Amino acid sequence: TDSEGNMQWNKTYGVNYYDEGWMILEVDDGYIIVGITYSAEEIGDGWLLKTDKEGNLLWNKIYGGSGDDGLYGVTKTVAGGYILAGYTNSSGAGGYDVWLIRVDEMGNQQWAQTYGGVEDDFGYIAFESETDFVVDGTTYSYGAGDADVWLLRVDAMGSLMWNYTYGGPDGDHGWYGAKTSDGYALCGFTYSYNTEDRAEAWLVK
Predict the structure, then answer these.
(1) Scanning 58, 141, 152, 159, which has its CA 20 to 30 A from the CA of 99?
(2) How do residues 182-199 score in pLDDT, each as one tens digit?
(3) Please, are residues 12 and 35 in contact by the beta-carbon 8 Å criterion?
(4) pTM exceeds 0.90
């Protein structure tokens, strides 16, 4: 759209079954989109697309195994390429696990790592912090209650450095995070810390 929200053009992209775009970045020569492509009703793969400035598809990459996998977040790294965050049950400790993939500028995978326990765990965004990466997500495997916000820090090759959970006895979820001048800010929603029996937006510093 233009700066007033008037549509200039629109494009669709799809492969087999359902296809979803979850996050977009503007780069020098176009756009990077991350999401999920489904080969069957409940079997997804992580999906990365690049388009030119007019939305014409330049290339796309699919990542995943025999299970259900998907990607929610993409961040451009200082060294070039992208860090992708999502979930996988093709590999890992059990159920769904946080899935982190580092790719070069053409989407070629450099490494992939999983993090999680026996229950379901999801990553939503990874962002660069110095030479490392910090991942914001939700864990059902660890923490104080049904679900908790999960913050992980990994090194440049994806090896876990530290992790923390935030939450109470009910379901608490992290959806997005950002590096601040003096730490990190995480946002999502909480059932543990609310005024009534309903979810409320939650900001954690």
Answers:
(1) 58
(2) 999 999 999 999 878 899
(3) no
(4) yes
